[in-house]
Amino acid sequence: MTTILTFLVAVLFVIVIALTVALFALARQVGVLFERIAPMGALVNDSGPRVGQATPRFTLASLTGPAPVEIGPREGRATLVFFLSPTCPVCKKLLPILKSARTGEAGWLDIVLASDGEEPRLRRFIQTADLTEFPFVNSTELGLAYRVSRLPFAVLLAADGTIRSKGLINSREQLDSLFNAHDMGVDSIQSWLDRPAITA
Q: Of 61, 140, 153, 170, which has the maximum CB count within 10 A?
């Protein structure tokens, strides 16, 4: 009996050693994979005005304030136009991130929320989601001008009214990629990652 127990303990010990080695090997492979996978930016579409072009100009009524909302050049201020819908679950998931960005990027950025649909429904959405601090416009024409076909979608405008970056946004990382592209002066994070390597 003692011999059998000793054998079983020895077998278990070998199994534990093998599992430990496998765990370290797996951790190493995960690390290698993480290094190889580049961060994914906003999913840029090729329709509508291109990055670098001047934005179409709009003056739109706001559902959250008396002053009209200007889409176009703003002296010293960039503008993020964020397209969303009350029926879009991903949009709702991103609302806390937008609120955080509104505070964290307040020194240089204005955020405008845009949707289209029945105004009473949008007003209820604004109240229930606590979006009264954002300029919120209801405009089909705005979405058509930027060729917005899927939500949530964002367009970042430079202070001079040129489109600095744009794309489909599904996460904080993709929203941040628009800001990073703006700061780096590139069309998108993908275009920066895909640039030809500089050889010495």
A: 153
